[in-house]
Amino acid sequence: MTSKSKFSSLSVLLLFGMFTGAFSQTVPGAPTNVVATGGTNGVITVSWTAPTSNGGSPITSYTIVPRYDYTNGDSIIVFSSSPPFSNDYTVPVKDESYTFTITATNAVGMGAASAPSAAIFVPNVPGSPTGVTVAPGYESSGYNDSVVLTWTAPTSNGGDSITSYTATASPSGATCISDSGTPSITPGCTVTGLTNGKMYTFTVTATNKLGTSTASAASSSVLIKQTIPSAPLGVFGSSENHAVLVTWSTGPDIGPYPITYFTATSNPGGDTCIGVPYSVSCVVVGLTNGTSYTFTVTETNSIETSPASAPSTAVVPYTVPAAPTSVTAIGGTSGQITVSWVAPDSNGGSVIRGYNVSTVGDSGTSCTTTGALSCVVTGLTNTSAYTFTVVALNAAGSGAASAASAAVTGIRSFSLQSMGLQVDGSRVMFRLPELSGNAQVSIIDLFGRNMWSQTLGAGTQEVTWDGKVQGKTASSGLYILRLFVSGTGQGMKLAAQSKILISL
User: Fold this and answer.
1) Cα(435)–Cα(428) distance, rounded to whole angstroms?
2) What are the two backbone dihedrals, phi and then psi, of residue 486, each rounded to the nearest 5 degrees?
3) Which residues is 102 bridged to in the sheet?
4) Where would I find the H helices in 418-469?
5) Which region, left, alpha or beta, applies to residue 95 given φ > 0 means left and ψ of -120 to 50 means alpha?
6) Are 119 and 91 in contact, with CB atoms under 8 Å apart?
7) Where are the beta strands (DSSP E) in 184-232?
8) Which of these, 62, 254, 385, 398, is most buried using a 10 Å CB contact count?
9) What pTM value is reported for the model?
10) Taking Cα atoms as reference points, which of 387, 383, 395, 346 lies closest to residue 365?
11) Which of 395, 393, 410, 401 is nearest to 489 (CA)?
């Protein structure tokens, strides 16, 4: 072969080699190990591994294709030629599941798509609750500065559990929070701090760990009513035996619900009584006589019990005193008898104000005291026998009568002149009236020395003194003649005396 022929053959071979090398380049293989992570904040991180073949030409970019809601989303081109390969993807729609495929591109073109990543769910804040209203069983309106609300859970929790609900009043902005994510068929929460007599609407939001939903539609307008009755007024206690009658006036604002009962409570002790509707009194029993108590009253309707009233003034339960004892009567002259006694063992829980003394069988003769333990009964008949009873009085009234005293007769008083007193020289004479008891007559000088005495039995008797003193005739001068008599239950009492002149 000539040298020219050899040159031509080599040129052909070189050109063939060049063309066959150019024609052997192709698109890259499919990326592998596509993984999607994150998503809770709306951003998914997608990572992958480069294809095992770049098709004979360097890879210049990768294309990430998201898929959600059965549709491919907008793709993202990532210009990267060296690992690690990853990129963040901000999701356009939350509360959705996403998958991702990756393609690689070189100078020849875009290669085949990778196998899709495992699905990743991107949660969202919850949807809005619905059906906000006053809780069933709590009437059709609010009450007592507050309202109890219920609602229906949102149709979507955003893919994450609802942790709480917040109800908000308008106007005022007062809120309550239900820390349970359970849809509230039962009352959800109670909004407080509202104003009775005003109208309010309410909205509710739901919250999960991603955030808070938009507010629900507003509830219907709610009128806040007063249902706790106001406290009763004018509480007063009246003493009884081991008890107190408590009276009051109904509070000025009972609200829209009728009062069902009243409760009166003692302090100390906590003893109570119940007053029926429209009643304004009841009796607290079981109290201790002599102990000071105050009382408060509440009123209750079908919803609530009022605050307690202001306490009553102190009151002491009591009863009438016990009977006095040891009643004693002592007769005197001029139709008078002195009666004395011992105070009763119990004053009934109230200070004894006085005593009444009554003559048994004679309602017209009596005496009273304001605390003394004796008094004098007047207007009696000296010759008659009497017995007496005594009663004690306190704020509750008159107690039981004592046992009757022993019978006693008053002492008669006499005029010696009416008994025919005669003095003849040293001889003294007079005639006693008929007596029911014994009598004693004596003559004393002006110094009180006894000159003569004689005890006389019952009945009319002539009395004569012969003027002898120890067998000797008395000296002329003034003397005193005394007459002592006794009645039933009595010792000797002076009944009469008179000066006499002895003239010899």
Assistant:
1) 20
2) -125, 150
3) 64
4) none
5) left
6) no
7) 189-191, 199-208, 211-212, 222-225
8) 62
9) 0.44
10) 387
11) 410
